[in-house]
Amino acid sequence: GPYDYISDGNKLKINKTGCPEMSIGGTGDVLAGLCGSFLTTGSNLFQAACSAAFLNGYIGEYCKKSLGPRFTAMDMINNINTGILNLWKNNTLKE
User: Fold this and answer.
1) From the CB of residue 56, how many other CB atoms can be counted at a distance below 10 Å?
2) 64/62 Cα distance (integer angstroms)
3) Cβ distance 59 to 83 under 8 Å?
4) What is the pLDDT of residue 94?
5) How far apart are the first and last CA of the chain?
6) pLDDT tens by residue, the chain, 95 residues
7) How far is CA 90 from CA 54, 80, 84, 93, in A?
8) For residue 14, what pLDDT is reported?
9) 80 close to 59: Cβ distance less than 8 angstroms
């Protein structure tokens, strides 16, 4: 479906970022890498999964908007920094 449901068995989060164009090989690998990165910051598993899913979807949306509907997982990786900066500039991310 259009949304990702993330649960630890007690809490549920619905991630609404992402786009159908992300149904290409490698986007799950990007998600796994983001999740691992968030875990190294001390986030618990649930928060890391939620943050990674949000950012992965946001980067996919960003790539679609800036590169068009035919982007790759490598395009997503190459745009992670730009996506985070956009989130920061839009005051979506807080210190």
Assistant:
1) 26
2) 5
3) yes
4) 55
5) 32
6) 689 999 999 999 999 999 999 999 999 999 999 999 999 999 899 999 999 999 999 999 999 999 999 999 999 999 999 999 998 888 766 54
7) 15, 15, 10, 8
8) 98
9) yes
Buried b / exposed e over 16-32, threshold 16 CB at 10 Å, is ebbbebbeeeebeebbe
DSSP H helices in 1-95: 27-39, 45-67, 73-78, 80-89
Q: Is the model's pTM score more than 0.85? A: yes
Residue appearing with tokens 């786009």? 19
Q: Which residues lie closer than 8 Å to 23 by C-beta, 6 or more apart? A: none
Return the SS3 of 15.
Answer: strand
Tokens describing residue 69: 């509907």
